[in-house]
Structure formats: structure tokens, C-alpha cells
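Fold sample X.
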Amino acid sequence: MQTKPRILVDLTGRNIAWVFISAIITLLSHSILAFTFINPWFAMVLMGIGYSILACALWPMVAFIISEHQLGTAYGVMQSVQNLGLACIVLAAGAIVDLKGYIVLEVFFLMWIC
């Protein structure tokens, strides 16, 4: 059973536009967390929507540019790079919170998104 964002991406076929939209949604959610007093639940739900759209739009693009006999390797490399980035960012985020606090952490995330 397909999820709603996946259906939207597949129907429109504009993966790059959806990646851009997901970045804007994520930027908005981190901005809400950093600079407003709005309930964090709203920002976290918005961030979940942004990440869902990103995954639905970004991962299928690999199949558009890589030949079929190299597709498994391409997905493996993509997963490895993603996991390496997640591991490094989590360590950096912990150090930033310990040294500077949560507002600086959100600015750090905003910088990466931009």
C-alpha cells in the first residue's frame, strides 16, 4: 500500500520540485522550533511531513540516473553516505547542545538546510 506523499510524487513526476518543497517545509519547522513559542508538536509533525516527502522524492531519482545493473550498488552507497552523515551530525549536535544550547543547535540545523 502506497503512502500519500508517494502517490503525490508519482502522479506529478516532479521529484526535484518535491525535494525543494520538502526542504522548505523542514526549514519552516526548524524555524518554528528556534524562533517561536508555538507548540513543538506542530513543528515536529511538519518536520515529519517534510522528511516523508523527501524520502519519497529523493530515493527514486537514483533509478533515473544510474543504469539498472549498477542500481543495487548505487542504493548501497547512498544508504552508507546517509548513515555516515547521520552519525556525524548526531555527534556534532550533542557537542553543540552541551556547549551552546538548543537555540544554537537549531541555527546549526537551519544552516545545513539552507
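Fold sample Y, listed below.
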Amino acid sequence: WCGFLRSLLSVLVPPRMAGLRVDFGLLLEPLGFIKVLEWIFSIFAFATCGGFQGETALLVSCKGVANKTVTAAFAYPFRLNTVVFSAPDPKRCGGTWTDVYLVGNFSSSAQFFVTLAVLSFLYCIAALVVYIGYKHVYQQNSKFPLTDLAITVITAFLWLVSTFSWATALADIKMSTGASIIPGIESCKAPGTTCRFASVTSMKTLNVSVVFGLLNMVLWGGNIWFVYKDTNLHNQPKRISQQSP
């Protein structure tokens, strides 16, 4: 990122304007303060979603096996269709038990959400470096505020799409790992075999990830105005009105 930022500065900034001048003053203004919040909330967003690990458990009774607990462990990126339940000794079940997989592949929504959070995190670092070390460049060169505005608008829209996509996928994940999976398991329909739902790992952290997605959406959406105020799009009408008399 340092190399990318250096090359970007060399393109956008004339040599006479370049030079590091550390100034934390912009962090006390809404533009910088909100960027810090975006940086923090992006960390929580990808940590609560990308770091999840859980399992769902069933109690299986069949020929020669009584109340055997079988589990299926799942985690990010939630390709549930590749997750198989541990077998309750198929031979003692009279050969009626076959591999049982969970249903659904929710990796696209989960990876979209986490990838956006990581990219937001990296962009916030780059933006804060500019705000703190190159405040004079940011304020004097109109290209920086316009670029910042475009990225902020796009990111706010992507947070809207990814958060609602991930919230929908999370609801489906809960269905695919809950008690409703038993009617779809063929091995549980074999004569003399009964399956009962035991438990599933709490998904409170995944619920929290959706909340952080919404907070990121609000922050990036609200930050559009403060970034827009620093662009010549906002300042140009003022100059015209001042020059018109």
C-alpha cells in the first residue's frame, strides 16, 4: 500500500506540493473521524463473519446403535453442501446409513461481504495516511477529493448490496443447520432408524456481523456529504455566486 500510495501521489501531485507533513487535525473533523469509525467497523464486520466456526448435531438411533450423536462442522465461507455428518457406525445400522451432507452453498454472499470489509479496511488506512500526512495535498488538489467521493459512493452502495445479500444467506444458513434438515435425510427414513435434532452452535456473532454491515452502510452513506463538501463540485457554486456581482 505504501508503494501504491507513493505512485498515486507521483501521478496526482505536482512535485512542489509533495512532502510529508504530519497533522492529526483532520481526524477531529467529521471527514477524518468518520473514516476512523469506518476502519474500526470494517474490522468487526469481517472478523465476526470470517472467523465463525460451528456445528450442528443429531441424535441417531438405529439397529445396534442407541442415541449416537453425529455432528457436522461448518464454518466460513459456508459451503454447506461439502459438509458431511459423522457416521453412527453404518455397519451396525444394517448398512442403511449413507453419507449425509448439509444443503446449500452460501459462499458467494459470505465472501462478498468479507471481501468488501477487507477492502474497506485497506482503503481507510490509505485514506487516513493521506489525511494525516498529506492534508495539504488533499485540500489543494481537486483530484483527491473527487476520487475519494467516487470511492465513497461506490463503497456505500456495495455495503447496501452485500449486507442484505449476507442477511438473506444467514437466514438460509440457519434453516440448513436447524431442526428442519431431518425430513430431508434419507438415512433417517430407513426402517428402525430415528433421528432427533440435538443442537446447533449459536449464531449470535453472525447476527452481529449483519449489524456491523448496516452500520458500515450508514457510515459510508453519511460520509458522502462530508467528502462532497471538500470537492470543487460543492465549492464551485459559491465561487460563481461570489463573482457574479
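Sample Y note: Confidence is low (pLDDT under 50) at residues 11-17, 237-245.
Also: Residues 28-232 form one domain.
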